[in-house]
Design goal:
Length: 77
């Protein structure tokens, strides 16, 4: 199992749309709205890196101005 964190910068108008998308995914453990350089942090567990990529890339459909950064826990590499 691979634990990954997705850090998201987004516009306020789509913030809750993104949060709701991730809360519906079975692999997601936690979704937090944050203050600071990132607006949302998503914590998740997947079986493969390809699974992570597949699920996380879908959020670019929300808004093209969206910016993301993915972290994978080092113990899982």
């Amino acid at each position: 199992m691979i634990r990954a964190y997705l850090l998201i910068i987004c516009t306020p108008k789509i913030k809750y749309q993104i949060v709701n998308y991730f809360k519906r995914l079975p692999n997601v453990i936690n979704v937090d709205i944050t203050y600071g350089p990132y607006d949302i942090v998503v914590e998740s567990i997947f079986n493969t890196k390809d699974e992570i990529k597949e699920k996380f890339e879908k959020i670019t459909n929300f808004d093209k101005s969206l910016s993301t950064f993915t972290l994978i826990r080092s113990e899982d590499i």
